[in-house]
Amino acid sequence: MSHAVRVLVVDDHSVLRTGLRLMLEQQPDLAFVGEAPTAEDALRGIDRTAPDVVMLDIQMPGMGGLEGAARLKERRPGVRILVLSMHDEADDIRRAFAAGADGYLVKTAADEELVRALRAVAAGERYLHPSLGAKLAQPATPSGPVDDLSPREREVLRLLALGYTNQEIARELVVSVRTVESHRAHVMSKLRAESRAAMVRHALDAGLLDQR
Predict the structure, then answer these.
(1) pLDDT at residue 1, as a whole number
(2) End-to-end alpha carbon distance in the chain
(3) Considering 136, 162, 191, which residue would you say is the last residue of a domain?
(4) Distance of alpha carbon 55 from alpha carbon 204, whole angstroms
(5) Do 132 and 186 form a contact (C-beta atoms < 8 A)?
(6) Looking at the structure, do residues 106 and 200 belong to the same domain, yes or no?
(7) Within a 13 Å sphere around the CA of 169, how many CA atoms are in the beta-carbon half?
(8) What's the pLDDT tens digit per position in 62-117?
(9) Rounded CA gap, 185 and 179, in Å?
């Protein structure tokens, strides 16, 4: 790339954000353009920071990294997502890529590995450390119905279970009511739920109401 890769760091640990900033500032082809403690903060500032790559954790307060990755991609389709997580389980990796991640790296990786991953995803490649690739070769853990939902569908289900109307969900997610209705129909179909009460039970069983 002819210009320095612009990187936004999203993690709820300030010490880690500082360390990543210092590391990025030592690389002539990588530019630290901002940081955020939550995915919500990243969304609010992404148009201002205009990153090429967003480096984010999966587990954070609020919507978390999975929903955050999906919504960042919706806001800026060209942005690349590199997940930096403490978790190295196959199911976590699969969910991250399903949410829109372009790369996945564990926080124990060396600085050189992180720089390599950033350059790879910025260049349009999909990055996964070989040790994690071996984990993906393992059979997937059987999942419940809610695990088959997309991150956006899970958020719609969570808000429905909290009692939000379609109009309120549309305002919360900054989408049209028609889009909410479409997501709701998909959720009901995937869960084979014939009523709102049935969807609420699924949300409770999956722990969606404990997320924030």
Answers:
(1) 45
(2) 39
(3) 136
(4) 30
(5) no
(6) no
(7) 23
(8) 888 888 888 898 889 899 999 999 888 887 888 788 788 999 999 888 899 999 99
(9) 10
